[in-house]
């Protein structure tokens, strides 16, 4: 049994990690950390988990730093994470970070997208970008696992087979996202009268996850745009990549690329070719699970493709992938504790 | 042409009044007041009205107090309204207040429900409760018109015919309300991930509008409860009053009571007896309009009745009724500027 | 490993049973029966389960009757179930029926609420009403387990402690229900433009589940009404029982009743007394799980109580409770395969 | 006062036309035609309009053909419209058709997109494509006005300034649409559990409105794709055109094009350049009105542009534009009866 500490336990990703830890056969909660709600019962903030943690309260950072744990999940704001990561590592804990602090290898890119110097530069070399579909072997036994951006994960997995094959000329990627992307805090835009049924184009071309996408796909930024629209969903990301191929292709060739990339992946499902309206995935079909669905449609002429993916941003886009990383870091089977099936319709 | 000043112009009721004033043939906007956004274009806050007020900006309270107006709508927070009302009246303006400051005649009731002393006690005698269905004659030419609570309006109009006839023994009233009831500001509960599809019982028995309901129906509080549930709506109130009659009645008698009460009312529509699933009104059928629908169903035995109403809380529950009051106060036809039809389905 | 057959496998309760069977450590799917879609892949109808049943197709009733199984779940329309139940029992299979065919012990009550003679009268004595919270001991090893109505389950569990204690004078019960209650088929009312954000009072006083509620609580019908409102939800029932106690009571006494009834129940959670806005449960907090939450609020005077419950109608209101019944019938631990945690916010 | 007949009066576009006719100062309803509901009160089908048409019932086609009218609105299914149009014209009525029967000038294009021969070929030369922003002068006094596709209208108005200037190289256009696009009838996909919160890509590249878009913009089909995603909305279309310019451009030049195209248009509003999150329009800001909002954002490098529009598909996408056309055909001011302001938030 591994003891895991959870930092940032009152947030949405924090709540999702609590759900996962409660159901994990090889993990137990060492502590759930919250500066603002230390001493308060966990069930007050996460009413759906009250019965799973009947007598558990949040603890302060100071208390948490006194306690023991094998691994720490950091669901802290960008910037605050790196500092705590150093402390945890120094105490001999493995760290799975969900923030953006360790995602970008290039300090200049971090500066540009996050408007700040890279935090904890001494740790950067140790962090592994936490997407097992790309970095599985590096993640095994790793000490420091970086989180992934939910939109980045969706975009990367939609385009990876094309990028790897060197046939992706350019793509205009757009993600439709639910309100849980914004976290538990809320801002003016998340006030229900403004957010309900919104189709708000938050950014038309250059969402900050674009940096991750380019890094992981090995593409120059000139080839990609990444737009984000807030839609009427709480959970879920749907990514539509309007891509151009560098040469005309036929369906069979594309199926070989996608099957080759994902045939062995435990959490990636390819959408069927038929019926045609199921080719492009809908995030409702993965709700509450760690699965990601990937599909594509090819236009006449063989050069224009719509490559798409759908995932639950709190699961495969955050807590679920973090748990995959933690399993790998701890030497557990990668899928352990992640076999819940999607809840649909919901 | 009457010149009207609007105080609290950035809020939701304020926005709705701007929509109404823009379409009113006998009113023009003197000023739209906002302390926080003075100098900013009106269309930034109310994008749906940009074209209707192409070159209009908010003004500060100080500027507004220098300007002229025939009538002031006060869509200000409870407490702040009364003070401004006094100033407006002193400048010879008529006042239509949307806050709760002048609703309750009994200072003790105000204290109890709003946790504060009655503001501007010297003005209380002059205010008329602004529900034309109850106080039409007093409202004609009035100087100070009080706003009405949206839930109170719904409950009063559902039960009025029974209360007037003296056959209402008791009622457990519950309102299902949209998120726009909470105003433009937002609180933790209105954060979209918490509010979306919520069925949150905000108060089980004693919403603060109960004071108005008892006052206007002339009933002791022991006879009524008023519960409120926040549901997945932006606009709309549906009121279901689970009432007990003091004696068994038959349908025909009840129809006479309801038709007698509302047959001449320009904005009250009775639901048809058939088809039976249309007896209880749905607020979607009055969206964007000043109409209120009232219906009832009688259980076997003739003593248990479900009396119900539905309205748009920003219209008949706030801005629409306020404009009815303003029309009456200014000597205009009561329905002027209020003939828009509901938008359905939406 | 028990082999289970699923009849009515294309419906919503059928889909939910497929999700549960896939995750159950002691069950495997013998066959998924559909007359209309025999031969078609299961993943076409239930896209969220494609990866869990990668090579499974629906079979015809005729094929299913040739196959072997230890237990049959019948998610068939009312009326069709009883006939198939007889055949399954004759082949030595245990039967868990989700229809209403075996719910009402009194043939007259069945006739009245379902407008038809009781089907398979020879089997009626053998069926056990499948709510473990009421009939746990009878369900152990039972051959024929009846389903439960989702609204009935919600109403029964909200009121059971009061009814058992003999303090329930009367109650006006109302359920707010999601669109999945209507099944996969759809009717005019479920067309999205009509159903979205609806507050449609489907029945004000006498939903057909009232028969079950009275039977199981041992109350005469004169004491209860059961209204149903369709609200903007896909899954979920919230039941609010506006009840009157036969004598004034205090909170502590009520807590003893509710704790006494549910303290040992594995799937019933009592809402906390504080914070007060969490006293009345919201179905969003049990989404996708088999849990039911029960709470209450007592009005001043001690006679008027709001007793409430919330559940996921496809789980605790249908498939989840059916699996509890199947576990008990097969001699398995009651909670086996039902430990998934709620997905929130979603 | 012009007398107008409405064919197809039970549908969603029909209901919207009834709302418009009721509020139009120069029109009165001659008859509301329905084969299936002849004799039934109009308020049963359109409960939100009951008070506006208190004693009006639907009439059969046969009755309607006996009556008199100055103009007929045809909100009939594709194919049925053309036949009735001929009869109406023969009786001397002007016709405003909302179907697709007269939209495409090229019979081959009609065949391809609608899978049928062009109906009423003898009338084709007489029909004018009913988008006043493109064909205002031809519409004045016209006898036969064709309807417009809602998605086509959105796409055309987003791209028109670029196409006219000859700078549009290609565009991948996608529309996000509400459930009212499917009409009042409903199909499996519109069943609420499937449709609620859906992100269903109905067609990735070639929605049938593409024919209209190419015809009206004068572009070859190779340059455009038109995808449609069903989203959680009842009313509304948001069109995002991911376009490539044939040469690098700067913002100022684009503003001149868009202002030049729409500066005088009574129903087209340009989105402001600032704040930047208001550049791309949201259909919630035009709900219930005849307005269309158009905006754009230019990516670095000056070649990639996101050109966008938003409208209410039942208004500017159907009934509203039809009324504009009717006004022009009858010699009335084009905006008559169309000055209602958007309802927001709703």
From TrEMBL, chains A, B, C, D:
Its EC number is 1.2.1.38. GO terms for biological process: L-arginine biosynthetic process. It is found in: Cytoplasm. InterPro entries: AGPR (IPR050085), AGPR_dimerisation_dom (IPR058924), AGPR_type-1 (IPR000706), NAD(P)-bd_dom_sf (IPR036291), Semialdehyde_DH_NAD-bd (IPR000534). GO terms for molecular function: N-acetyl-gamma-glutamyl-phosphate reductase activity; NAD binding; NADP+ binding. Residues 3-142 form the Semialdehyde dehydrogenase NAD-binding domain. GO terms for cellular component: cytoplasm. SMART domains: Semialdhyde_dh (SM00859). Gene3D superfamilies: Dihydrodipicolinate Reductase, domain 2, NAD(P)-binding Rossmann-like Domain. The active site is at residue 150. Pathway: Amino-acid biosynthesis; L-arginine biosynthesis; N(2)-acetyl-L-ornithine from L-glutamate: step 3/4. It catalyses: N-acetyl-L-glutamate 5-semialdehyde + phosphate + NADP(+) = N-acetyl-L-glutamyl 5-phosphate + NADPH + H(+). Pfam families: Semialdhyde_dh, Semialdhyde_dhC_1. Keywords: Amino-acid biosynthesis, Arginine biosynthesis, Cytoplasm, NADP, Oxidoreductase. Catalyzes the NADPH-dependent reduction of N-acetyl-5-glutamyl phosphate to yield N-acetyl-L-glutamate 5-semialdehyde. HAMAP family: ArgC_type1 (MF_00150). Belongs to the NAGSA dehydrogenase family. Type 1 subfamily. This is N-acetyl-gamma-glutamyl-phosphate reductase. The gene is argC.
